[in-house]
Structure formats: C-alpha cells, structure tokens
Task: inverse folding
C-alpha cells in the first residue's frame, strides 16, 4: 500500500550538497558535470560564465584535470571530457558481469527476431540503458546505451518497478515528480498497472514515447536479488521490418532474459 504522501518539491542542487563542502572538489565536479551535460567543447571563459565564476577561479583546476587526463583541450581552446571517467566507472561497475552475460544472448535474439533490443537497470531513481543491440535491418529503432530515462513513464522502468520490492518501489515513487503530480485516481490506476505487469511477467506499450513505437519488456533476474534488469524489444510499427504481432516474440524474449540471468548468476 502506498503511503498517502503529499507532493513535495524536489530538492535543489544546493540543498542536496553536503553540509561540509569542499570548494575545490565542488568546483571540479561542477566542470565535469557541465561538460557532460553540454557534450560540446567549452572554453575557460564559457565555463566560467555558465558556472557563475571568474575565469581565473577555474584556471588551476582546469590545468589539473587536464594533466590527470580527465579533460582534453581542443585546438580552439575548448575543453572536452576524455574517456577516463567512463573507464573508471567500468572498472568497478556492478553491472559489468551483467553486460558480459547479456552480449551473446542479446545478439542472438536480435538476429533471430530482426528487431532492436536493449537492457536497462535502475540508477539513482532513473532508467539507465546498459546496452543496446540494433536490428540487422536498414530501418530500425535504437536507444542509446548509457542514456537515462524516466523510470516512471517508460515501459522498461515500469516493469522494473513492478518487479522491485514494494518498499523500494514506493520510496522511489514518493521521490519522483512524475508520479507525485498524478491525481489520486491516476496513482491508483498506475499501481494497478504495475501489479498486472508483475502478475503477467511482462509489459507492453504502444505509442508511449512517440506515435508508431511499440515496446515489449520482461524482467531479468530474481525480484528478491539486488541486481535486477529489464530486457526490452523496441519496434516501429509500419516499417517493412516490423512484426504485425509483437507478442509472437515474447517466448524468445523471455528465453533471452532467462539466459542472461542464468549466465550472470542472478536467475
């Protein structure tokens, strides 16, 4: 049962910061997060303006990040992120074993059904796409690996929530504005949808993100385990590659999910 929690405004970045701040560390993190969000080279002056700081404040910090290999300076003077953060995250990623386990089964699935599929997990209250396998066709639907999406509004996120412990699910929903802005009747209907997905063992959606899109999702892993994922077929209706009935692929999707869970040791 969901707690009757009144909608509360989400915390601001300032409110989430620790009580005992370290200015130099925060300054470096601000730069890294800004460059990650912008995904284009930014000069020292542009970074300073965007962060509300003086250019001189950033000079030594930018030099240090560049010397340590986190940033690279382009010919025009703009700074960009290198792959060092990505490499560090993969070195100790709790999902690395899951990715290794998913590679062969997902490729086999994509080749057999000739549709794209992706594997996702929950990450900081959002849906994180771990990996994507494209359909072996000229027209296909792809979801970028590493991208973040709403865990509340996407089918993959809903299937994950449906197969999460009730207390974890309720706490996440209580924190998310997408759920809190719903009316009481809409929340009841939403929870009923999750309950049906859990009972069915799959979820299906049409036109959820755009007209013509179809998703079919199944959970990966044991709902009682700490590692849970969702495997989703993403299809476009009306293309020469799309299947008329996506549910024809459900048994193969479920087998692929079971194979991934078995290989990863989370079945």
Result:
């Amino acid at each position: 049962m969901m707690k009757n929690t009144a909608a509360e405004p989400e915390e601001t970045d300032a409110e989430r910061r620790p009580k005992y701040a370290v200015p130099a560390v925060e300054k470096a993190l601000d730069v890294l997060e800004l460059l990650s969000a912008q995904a284009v080279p930014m000069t020292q002056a542009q970074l300073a303006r965007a962060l509300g700081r003086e250019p001189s404040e950033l000079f030594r910090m930018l030099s240090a990040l560049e010397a340590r290999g986190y940033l690279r300076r382009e010919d025009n003077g703009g700074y960009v992120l290198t792959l060092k953060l990505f490499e560090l995250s993969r070195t100790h990623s709790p999902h690395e074993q899951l990715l290794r386990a998913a590679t062969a089964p997902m490729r086999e699935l994509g080749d057999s059904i000739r549709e794209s599929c992706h594997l996702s997990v929950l990450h900081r209250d959002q849906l994180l796409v771990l990996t994507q396998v494209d359909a072996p066709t000229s027209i296909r639907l792809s979801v970028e690996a590493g991208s973040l999406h709403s865990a509340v509004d996407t089918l993959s996120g809903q299937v994950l929530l449906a197969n999460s412990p009730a207390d974890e699910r309720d706490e996440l929903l209580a924190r998310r504005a997408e759920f809190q802005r719903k009316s009481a009747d809409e929340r009841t209907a939403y929870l009923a949808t999750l309950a049906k997905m859990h009972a069915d063992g799959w979820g299906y959606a049409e036109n959820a993100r755009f007209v013509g899109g179809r998703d079919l999702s199944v959970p990966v892993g044991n709902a009682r385990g700490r590692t849970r994922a969702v495997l989703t077929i993403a299809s476009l209706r009306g293309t020469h590659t799309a299947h008329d009935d996506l549910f024809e692929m459900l048994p193969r999707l479920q087998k692929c999910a079971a194979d991934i869970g078995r290989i990863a040791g989370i079945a």
User: Anything to note?
Assistant: The two ends are 27 Å apart (CA to CA). The chain has a mean pLDDT of 86.
